[in-house]
Amino acid sequence: xxxxxxxxxxxxxxxxxxxxxxxxxxxxxxxxxxxxxxxxxxxxxxxxxxxxxxxxxxxxxxxxxxxxxxxxxxxxxxxxxxxxxxxxxxxxxxxxxxxxxxxxxxxxxxxxxxxxxxxxxxxxxxxxxxxxxxxxxxxxxxxxxxxxxxxxxxxxxxxxxxxxxxxxxxxxxxxxxxxxxxxxxxxxxxxxxxxxxxx
Amino acid sequence: xxxxxxxxxxxxxxxxxxxxxxxxxxxxxxxxxxxxxxxxxxxxxxxxxxxxxxxxxxxxxxxxxxxxxxxxxxxxxxxxxxxxxxxxxxxxxxxxxxxxxxxxxxxxxxxxxxxxxxxxxxxxxxxxxxxxxxxxxxxxxxxxxxxxxxxxxxxxxxxxxxxxxxxxxxxxxxxxxxxxxxxxxxxxxxxxxxxxxxxxxxxxxxxxxxxxxxxxxxxxxxxxxxxxxxxxxxxxxxxxxxxxxxxxxxxxxxxxxxxxxxxxxxxxxxxxxxxxxxxxxxxxxxxxxxxxxxxxxxxxxxxxxxxxxxxxxxxxxxxxxxxxxxxxxxxxxxxxxxxxxxxxxxxxxxxxxxxxxxxxxxxxxxxxxxxxxxxxxxxxxxxxxxxxxxxxxxxxxxxxxxxxxxxxxxxxxxxxxxxxxxxxxxxxxxxxxxxxxxxxxxxxxxxxxxxxxxxxxxxxxxxxx
Lengths: 199, 465
Known about the structure:
The complex is a heterodimer of chains A (199) and B (465).
Chain A: E1 6-9, E2 11-14, H1 21-24, E3 64-67, H2 79-87, E4 91-94, H3 99-108, E5 111-114, H4 117-129, E6 135-138, E7 143-146, E8 151-154, H5 159-167, H6 171-176, H7 179-187
Parallel strand pairs in A: 2-3, 3-4, 4-5
Antiparallel strand pairs in A: 1-6, 6-7, 7-8
Chain B: H1 5-11, E1 14-16, E2 23-26, E3 29-32, H2 38-47, E4 57-60, H3 77-93, E5 97-98, H4 108-114, E6 123-126, E7 140-143, H5 146-155, E8 157-160, E9 164-171, H6 180-191, E10 199-204, H7 206-210, H8 213-221, E11 230-232, H9 237-243, H10 252-262, E12 275-280, E13 287-289, E14 297-299, H11 313-326, E15 341-344, H12 346-349, H13 352-362, E16 372-375, H14 380-388, H15 391-397, E17 401-402, E18 423-426, E19 441-444, H16 447-456
Parallel strand pairs in B: 3-4, 3-6, 4-5, 6-7, 9-10, 9-12, 10-11, 15-16, 15-18, 16-17, 18-19
Antiparallel strand pairs in B: 1-2, 2-8, 13-14
Helix pairs in contact in B: 2-5, 6-8, 13-15, 13-16
C-alpha cells in the first residue's frame, strides 16, 4: 500500500445509518477477478437516483466520506474498500465502523476514522452548508482538523496501524519477520489437530 | 481472575506478542471460496510467495454455482471465469478443492463441520463474514477480507487486535415452535447491527445447551449481523457426539487426547465479560424481519412499526427508508404480508435438520398458488442425506423446487434472484436492500415459518396451519 500521512480535502456527507457492504458494492461486482475498476460500482444501486449525494456536482472531487453510524456492516468483501479507494476516497469518518470493513480499509490504505456521534453530526451539517469545507486528517497526530469550525478532534488509531500508514507497509512482509516463531509454534501443535489432506 | 472461553482459545494461538503490535495468531483452518480469493492468489504470484500450509487450507465453490442444470456448467461467463480461476489457483498452489459436481462440494460453512474439520479450541478463518458459524464448536472463527486471505495463505498467521468479550445468556425452556433462528433474530433485534462491534460473543444458558449442533451453528452464523467479530458456544457432549467418527475427526488414542483437551474449554466461573446481555427464552416467539437490516425484526404476532413513534431520530429515519423500500405500511399485521417467493437454504439454514423441519410442514400440503419455493441444500452431502430420507419427494411433491447445493438466493450471485419489487420469506441471514436481487424485498424467517408461509401465501407460523 501507499503511505498516507495526511489527507487534506473536501467531503461527501452520507447521512444514513447501517450502510452495509451490499450497498457499497453490490454482489454482481464480486464476480470480477481483477483488483481494480470497482469505483464504477460504488453505491451503484443508490447512484441510480439523481439526487443521491455522489451524483451532486457540488461534492465532486471529495476525498473524505462522512457517514452515519454502523458503516460497513455485513459481508467481508474487501471489494467495498477497493470501490471507495478506486472512486477517490482516502478517509471514511463515522461514529461506528464495522470490524471487518475497518480491517479491510487498513490493509489497503483507506483510513477509518471514528469520531463521537455529535461530532460526526456537526461535520455532516457543516458540509451540507458548505461543500467546499476543508477537512484535514492527520495520521501522525491522529487528529481531524476543520479550521472553519475551529474543530480539532483526536481519533483512535493503534500504533501499529499508524506505523503502517505512515510508512506504506503491508502486513505480510512484517509478519514474515516472525518466521522462526511461526515455525516453532507449528512444531508444538498437538498431533490430533486436523489437516485438509483428502483421506 | 479467570478467563473466558474466547480468551483461552485466543491465548493458545498467539505466535508472537509485543506491546505495540497486534497479536500474531496461528490459523488452524483456512477455508477458501471463489469470490474473495482470486486477488489473494494473484498477490502471492506477484510476490513470488507460496501457500505455506496447503494441508490446513480447503477450497470449495459455493457463491457462484448454479443450483439447477449442473450438466450445462456455469453459463454466466464472468461467474465461470471466477470458478475457473479458483480451480487453476488451487492446482498451482496445491490446495485441496471440492469443485462444482464433487460429492463433498457445498457452502463453505456447511462442509467444514460436516467433514469433521471444524473442531473445538481452533482458530478458523475464511474470506466470508459468516465464518462465525464454526464457533458452534467452541472455535474462534471469523471472516476476513482478501488482503487477509493472502496473508493467511502466505504465513498461516494473522495479526489481530484482541477483541472484547460479550456474554449473551438465554435461559429457557423455549416455547414450542421457537427455533434457533428465532433466538438469534431476537438477540440481534435487542443488541442492534452494531451491538457486538469489536467483541466476541459467547452464547450461554440452557437454551444453547439444549440446541443441536446444527441449531448452534444457526445461532453463531448470524453473530456478524449483530456486528460481532465472532460468536461461540462452549463444547459439550453434544459437540463431541457430533464430531465422533467424522472423516477428519481424531481417531483412537488421538480422540481421547483431544477430548481431554476439549473438556477444558469453558469459561472459568470467576471470569467476567465486558458486556452482559440476558434474554428470557421462555417469552420468545417466531421472529420475522420487516426492514432492511437484520435488527429490524419483530415477533410474528406484531405489526409493522410506525417510524413516528421511534424516539431515536437515526433509527426512525432508517425505519422510514426501510418501509418505503419494502413497500410496507405502518400498522400492517405481519401475518397479512403476502410473498412471491420462499427460499430455504444458505449457511444459516441449509442443513439436514432445516430440511427435515420444512418437509414436516409440507407433508400432505401444497405450496400456495402463485408462490415460488426454492429448497437449496447447503451441500451435496446434505442433498444426498435428504434424498435418502425421502425429503426431496415431499418437497417436490408439495410443488417446491428441489435444487443442487450452493449459496443461491441468499446473495443472488448465481441465476437464483428476486425480480425488482418481488417479496420473499427467506431462511438466509441478510435482508439488505437488493441482497436477493436488485429491488427484491426480503423477510428473514426460520425454516418452519418459511414452509408455513409457502403453504398459506402470507407470513405464517407452522402453528397457524
